């Protein structure tokens, strides 16, 4: 449409130039009042045509700027959509990581609850065993006291036995003496001695029998005491073995409690690290959600701006159509003026022929008159015609000078307006570049924070896996019930590794895409706008 408009303007200019040249030739030969009026109309048409040219050029510039702004808005919308997609992908990945952290948090909480339950069970078992051990120890102490009392009683019996043995020995010695005395008495044959010796012998025999009975009872009690001493020794050995066993169980329970305490502390540290990681991820998710909301708002603003630009483009197109209609009407008027000029030209040719004939006649008459006198006389009508022609030529020259000055002023105003627009566009470009650089810095900062968080989580998982492997190699077999949770945690850790690496790759590629798209736009703007400003300045210098 702009090319067609330019072609029509060029045709009108060529026609105007042709008419202008014809009018100039007519003016050189001579001009009537009707030709002056047609010249004035032609100048008005030319002036209107120049105004239309200015308006068309202004509309062209407005249309080009609107199209450029529309393309820029579309590019910004595409860039914001790509950024929104990248941010939404990163938000989804962070949500998945948060879900994994929540699963690990649940597993750690379950492990902590089970460890606490096992610790309570072990403490209850240990307390029951301690009570049983205390009861057994008290019973053993009582039995030891009873045995000590029996030992003291046996010692008393042993002392009595020793006294009885000494008495028996004394009695045996006395019996020997009595038997010796009996033998002496038998030798002496004394009856009195026999009677006294017999009574003494009977009493000694009775005492000896009583002592033998008491000695047998003491021996029997000694045998019973020895048997009870053997039982006491066996019981003491059993109590010592039970004490050793209880001590070993106590040490084992203490080591298991220490293992569970260390495991509980590790679970608490894991829980704290998971909570800290969750807080960090929540902060990052909130930042990303705010950035996503900001991008959505910017996208909505860009859409509204695009709608306004579309409306302005539609208005410019309608104005352009109106200008086309006005140009067509001006062309019709110009064609009518050309027809009138052709008719005037034909009438002028006829008048010129008549005038030429009359002039030749007058010139011949004047030549003959000049030969007769040195002065030339002309008619009043000729004098008035020549003076009016000079005044009309002066007025036309003044009008042309004023029109050229107005055209120069309009060109200067248009150039000034275009320079102001170029400066405004440069300012907008600088602001856009600053905003894009700030967005790039924010995206890089977000990716760096995200990478740091992933490295911290990866290092935490790596240290936890190493610690768990060290615990599996060095702990007692009592903690075998915790092994399935370790394997499950290891499986979760192994499943999380490739996903994190994939997320890092995606974030790196998205950051590269974000970094590449504005650079191309900036380069394109830098290439186009300075050339436009340079062109306008060159034109201004040429003027």
UniProtKB/TrEMBL annotation:
Compositional bias annotation for Basic and acidic residues: 1-14, 180-195, 297-309, 445-458
Skewed-composition ranges (Acidic residues): 462-472
Entry keyword annotation includes Phosphoprotein: no
PANTHER family listed in its UniProt record: HEAVY CHAIN, PUTATIVE, EXPRESSED-RELATED-RELATED (PTHR32054), PROTEIN PLASTID MOVEMENT IMPAIRED 2 (PTHR32054:SF2)
Residues making up the signal peptide according to the UniProt record: none
Family: Belongs to the WEB family.
Origin superkingdom: Eukaryota
Compositional bias of kind Low complexity: 506-519
UniProt protein name: Protein PLASTID MOVEMENT IMPAIRED 2
Region of interest (Disordered), ranges: 1-41, 180-201, 297-324, 445-526
Coiled coil: 201-249, 415-442
Source organism per UniProt: Ananas comosus (Pineapple)
Record's keyword annotation contains Protein biosynthesis: no
One annotated GO biological process: chloroplast accumulation movement
Keywords recorded for this protein, A-Z: Coiled coil
């Amino acid at each position: 449409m702009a090319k067609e408009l330019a072609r029509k303007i060029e045709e009108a200019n060529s026609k105007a130039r042709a008419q202008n040249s014809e009018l100039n030739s007519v003016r050189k030969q001579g001009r009537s009042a009707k030709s002056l009026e047609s010249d004035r109309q032609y100048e008005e048409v030319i002036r209107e045509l120049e105004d239309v040219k200015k308006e068309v050029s202004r509309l062209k510039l407005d249309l080009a700027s609107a199209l450029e702004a529309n393309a820029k808005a579309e590019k910004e919308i595409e860039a914001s959509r790509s950024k929104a997609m990248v941010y939404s992908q990163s938000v989804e990945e962070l949500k998945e990581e948060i879900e994994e952290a929540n699963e690990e948090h649940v597993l750690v909480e379950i492990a902590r609850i089970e460890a606490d339950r096992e610790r309570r069970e072990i403490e209850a078992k240990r307390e029951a065993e301690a009570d049983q051990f205390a009861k057994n120890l008290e019973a053993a102490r009582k039995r030891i006291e009873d045995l000590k009392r029996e030992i003291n009683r046996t010692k008393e019996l042993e002392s009595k036995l020793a006294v009885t043995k000494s008495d028996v020995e004394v009695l045996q010695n006395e019996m020997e003496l009595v038997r010796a005395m009996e033998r002496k008495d038998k030798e002496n044959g004394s009856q009195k001695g026999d009677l006294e010796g017999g009574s003494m012998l009977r009493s000694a025999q009775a005492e000896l029998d009583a002592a033998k009975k008491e000695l047998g009872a003491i021996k029997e009690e000694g045998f019973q005491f020895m048997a009870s001493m053997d039982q006491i020794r066996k019981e003491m050995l059993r109590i010592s073995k039970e004490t050793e066993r209880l001590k070993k169980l106590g040490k084992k329970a203490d080591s298991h409690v220490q293992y569970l305490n260390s495991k509980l502390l590790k679970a608490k540290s894991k829980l704290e690290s998971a909570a800290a990681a969750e807080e960090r991820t929540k902060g990052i998710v909130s930042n990303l959600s705010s950035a996503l909301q900001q991008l959505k708002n910017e996208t909505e603003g860009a859409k509204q701006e695009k709608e306004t630009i579309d409306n302005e483009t539609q208005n410019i197109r309608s104005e352009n159509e109106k200008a086309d209609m006005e140009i067509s009407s001006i062309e019709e008027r110009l064609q009518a003026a050309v027809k009138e000029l052709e008719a005037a030209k034909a009438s002028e040719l006829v008048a010129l022929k008549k005038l030429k004939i009359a002039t030749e006649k007058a010139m011949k008459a004047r030549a003959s008159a000049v030969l007769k006198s040195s002065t030339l006389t002309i008619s009043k009508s000729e004098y008035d015609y020549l003076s009016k022609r000079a005044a009309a030529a002066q007025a036309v020259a003044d009008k042309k000078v004023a029109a050229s000055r107005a055209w120069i002023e309009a060109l200067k105003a248009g150039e000034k307006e275009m320079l102001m627009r170029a400066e405004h566009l440069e300012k907008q470009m600088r602001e856009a570049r600053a905003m894009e650089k700030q967005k790039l810095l924010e995206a890089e900062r977000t990716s760096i924070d995200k990478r740091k968080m992933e490295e911290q989580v990866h290092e935490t998982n790596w240290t936890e896996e190493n610690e768990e492997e060290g615990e599996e190699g060095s702990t007692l077999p009592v903690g075998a019930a915790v092994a399935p949770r370790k394997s499950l945690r290891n499986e979760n850790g192994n499943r999380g590794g490739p996903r994190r690496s994939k997320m890092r790759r995606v974030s790196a590629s998205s950051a590269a895409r974000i970094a590449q798209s504005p650079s191309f736009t900036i380069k394109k703007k830098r290439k186009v706008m300075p050339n436009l400003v340079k062109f306008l300045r060159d034109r201004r210098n040429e003027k």
